[in-house]
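Re: the 258-residue chain
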Amino acid sequence: MADLKEVLLNATLEAGKIILHYFDGVFKIDHKDGVNNLVTEVDKLAEKKIIEIIRSSFPAHTIISEEVGEMIKPSDYQWIIDPIDGTVNFAHAIPICCVSIGLIFNGELLLGAVYNPMMNELFFAEKGMGATLNGMPIKVSSKSDFKTAFLVTGFPYNWPDGAEHPIKVFERLVLEGLPVRRLGSAAIDLCWVACGRFDGFWEYNLQPWDVAAGYLIVQEAGGRISDFDGAAYDVFTKETLATNGLIHEAMLGVIKKK
């Protein structure tokens, strides 16, 4: 485990150095499957560094990463990588973006790290060992009064046919008088729930690399994460609801309300 943890943290921090070096600088920006779905050369440089570090120690492990896709190996280990979560923020010099790396072993999340080098915040969790921010233990908020909850969400670039539009759920919560933020990085949203800054987060259509590390960090900080029906969650689930646990049922009620 020590070697796995060391490699994960090394890859996270080295990618963070690349992001910090280019932040608010000049770099090439391309578009993926939408005019506002961006990828930069820095995403690719950070991803290349992460993969090099992992491959140097564990060449037989599977890697799933946002830009290169899935590099399948016959292994029980899967590294889930987002070299920059919050690329649109990064491209506009907004310092709410991060490296996110999760490690799955036999279908269970084992390790997770999320690093925002601009804010110098490193979130980390190991299964069964709790979650930390810059080495200090963190836990979710203790707020149980849903009427005073502080929430965060995100909106997908593409909303699937047949699903309820996210603006409707957002509107319900705003009409309840609740403060809701939209930061532009699901990994940071999850970590900020884990450390008690937010009480709850919900979003639809996230990818495994968006949530893998943050999911474990929320769990290890004492929070609850599920789909929009309250069912058990995994990183391939398209509905993500993460809370301090105390307001979870209330949020489910608002999200599912017809």
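The two ends are 46 Å apart (CA to CA).
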